[in-house]
Design goal:
32% of the residues lie in helices and 19% in strands. The chain has 78 residues and is α+β, with helices and mostly antiparallel strands. The chain has a two-stranded antiparallel sheet with strand order 1-2.
Length: 78
């Protein structure tokens, strides 16, 4: 993946409990962070129960019982 440190940081803020620092408001609470005990410069990310529920909803929506994505009707934007 080709992600910048800034985009990862913003995503962690949005999906964490506190939300983005520059916009205020609460985050989604899907992840929690913890300092790496071996190197406190790093954060470890963990799914919360809400994050696990959200992930399950995404998987239920995307995958059928055979384990692949069902194709729905085409959507035309414009």
């Amino acid at each position: 993946m080709d992600l910048t440190l800034a985009s990862v940081s913003r995503s962690v803020d949005v999906f964490g409990p506190n939300g983005r620092k520059d916009r205020g408001g609460a985050g989604h609470g899907f992840i929690r962070t913890q300092r790496d005990p071996l190197d406190d410069r790093n954060l470890q990310l963990f799914l919360t129960p809400a994050g696990e529920d959200f992930l399950q909803q995404i998987e239920d929506y995307l995958y059928n019982e055979r384990g692949f994505i069902e194709r729905g009707p085409a959507v035309v934007l414009g």
